Structures are given as structure tokens and as C-alpha cells.
């Protein structure tokens, strides 16, 4: 009986290890297909590239507004062009507090920092927490739901919150 129990424990550990390795591979795939081009498109004000990273029926929620699909994507086209034409420079970096994925759906929670440089103004940093749902569609990961806020329970997300994690980096 002890040998049987030991075998069950070993099988459980092996299956857990395989599943964890599979999840890490999925996260690397998401990083390559979504987050690296997301960071680039955001900085370059490339709304076409940015929109292509989202599902057609993406749900974008902020404390101020809920936008779905085409409304969200059209807003990106307009907003990105407007800021690019003004000479605005920006960058985004983020870290994940929690990531869980299956082979075709992922849920990720983390914090981001946006740095904005506008002509004639001091550089400004903005911090927020996000929740993202991703879906794999035709072998490509896409953002299906995107929620973020600058406040948690009425308390502003700060640089100290952001500095608790290690920003996503690409090799």
C-alpha cells in the first residue's frame, strides 16, 4: 500500500510539473505574440498594430467608460494619431502579479507604468493595475478583455506599488 501511495504522489508531482512547464511555455508565447508588439505599438502610436492585438469584440473597461470592439479600436485610431501629431512620446512597462493559462485562454493581473513626454511639459509617470483576459484565435493570442484602474479601493496606485515587481523584459 505504501508503494502505491508513493507511486500516486510521484505521478501527481510529474503531472503538476508537466502542466506548469506547459503554462510557462504558453506565457512565453503570449509574451512574444502580444506583450512585445503591444509595448512597441504603444510607444510608436501604431494603432493598426495595436488594434490587431485585440479580438474584434474586445471589451475595454476603465473607471470612466466601457467600450467594445469597433468603438474601442476607432478610439485608438483617433487618439494615437492625435498624440503622435502633437509630438508626444510615451512608453509603457509592466509586471505580472498573477498569470494563469490554459492552451487557449489566459488571465493576467499586474501593474503598469506609462511615461509620457509632451512638448514643453515635464515628463510624467502614470501607474495603474490591470486585469487582462486573452484568447487564442487561429493560433494567435489576442486580448479579449482589458480592465485597468489607477485606484484600488479608493487608494491611488503609486510608484511604490509598481516597484514591488520586476518589469517584463524580452531577451
UniProtKB/TrEMBL annotation:
InterPro entries in the record: DUF4440, NTF2-like_dom_sf, Steroid_delta5-4_isomerase
Pfam families: DUF4440 (PF14534)
Keywords for this protein: Signal
Secretion signal span: 1-21
Domain DUF4440 intervals: 36-143
NCBIfam families in the cross-refs: SgcJ/EcaC family oxidoreductase
Protein name per its UniProtKB record: Nuclear transport factor 2 family protein
Amino acid at each position: 500500500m505504501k508503494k502505491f501511495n508513493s507511486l500516486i504522489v510521484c505521478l501527481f508531482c510529474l503531472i503538476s510539473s508537466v502542466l506548469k512547464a506547459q503554462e510557462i511555455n504558453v506565457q512565453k508565447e503570449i509574451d512574444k505574440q502580444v506583450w512585445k508588439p503591444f509595448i512597441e505599438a504603444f510607444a510608436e502610436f501604431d494603432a493598426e498594430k495595436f488594434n490587431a492585438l485585440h479580438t474584434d469584440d474586445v471589451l475595454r473597461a476603465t473607471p470612466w467608460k466601457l467600450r467594445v470592439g469597433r468603438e474601442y479600436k476607432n478610439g485608438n485610431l483617433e487618439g494615437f494619431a492625435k498624440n503622435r501629431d502633437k509630438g508626444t512620446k510615451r512608453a509603457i512597462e509592466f509586471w505580472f502579479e498573477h498569470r494563469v493559462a490554459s492552451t487557449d485562454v489566459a488571465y493576467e493581473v499586474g501593474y503598469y507604468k506609462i511615461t509620457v513626454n509632451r512638448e514643453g511639459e515635464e515628463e510624467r509617470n502614470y501607474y495603474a493595475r490591470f486585469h487582462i483576459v486573452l484568447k487564442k484565435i487561429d493560433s494567435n493570442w489576442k486580448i479579449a478583455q482589458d480592465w485597468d484602474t489607477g485606484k484600488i479601493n479608493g487608494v491611488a496606485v503609486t510608484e511604490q506599488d509598481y516597484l514591488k515587481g520586476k518589469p517584463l523584459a524580452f531577451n
